[in-house]
Amino acid sequence: MSLQIEQIVLHQLVRKSETEIEVMLRETVLESNQAVSALIADINRVYNNKSKAYGLFNEASLFADSVREMRAGNQDFLNFSQGSAKQLRNELVKYPFAEGGTVIFCLYRYLAVEYLLIAVLSSCQSMLVDDKLNISSTQYLDIDHADIIARVDLTEWQTDADSKRYLTFLKGRVGRKVSDFFMDYLGATEGLNAKAQNKSLVMAVDDYCQEIQLDKQEKQSCRQQVYDYCHSQLEAGEEIELANLAKELPTGDAGDFLRFVEEHAYELDDNFPADRSALRSLKKFSGSGGGLTINFDVDLLGQRVEWDARTDTLVIKGTPPNLRDQLQRNYDK
Question: 305-316: per-residue pLDDT in tens?
Fold first, then answer.
């Protein structure tokens, strides 16, 4: 089922100097057509494939107030977007590193849920060859490298006043940009910490395996089952359901793990989004520091990899061929 676009408009922020950003406002909303649908579908695809953080509006959020006014019918979508674009300009101008870009506001529905999407996209220059093989330059929106996007689940915001996750935003390599001006513009703070929830889950699973005295092979099988379930939820765009995950554990009684989590105060929600990087620790040991980076599959410990806890020494039996080649060439010198 495809998403249904209700309203969409584009504005532009152009930096003129370190202290000035010009706002170029569109005076009408865009008509929903194939190109518009493709644009939002692409943004949605990129957004869903990137690491996100979860948040909620502050009580003093001007952006949230504007959204409420729009939802109440006190201003139309175009006026809301124009005022919000000016508000974003006022935040951007405080940061000389912020270049501005094309600002997209879009109201859309997907699977009976209403969303408000806000994105700031940079433009890139490329070359175009026409049907007469003439070359000219053109500009395009760099959607694949978008890093300033937020989405409000308007349905959840309206129906669950205590939710800490109706607002999602990208949080990755450019987390500083998001936290410094985009979150200030939204008037929001981070709510649910999905990475922390996933790390707590991994810890709870390991501790539970030790509690019920699984041997090494059984523990590894348990970790694999948990990983498979969580990974399948991630790939399907679904959340981890703690009660369903508990059924993947070897005791056969899901209540045992749920009681264990509650008794040991892991503070896990009943359901939460999967985090790819945190779940990776179920499959691999990894670490870096002091110029050294090491990662290997968990099941190699005690076989090809031996760790001496007393001397804090790793012994690796059988190096990867490409590493061995580099070592040999350096050794020969």
Answer: 888 888 888 888
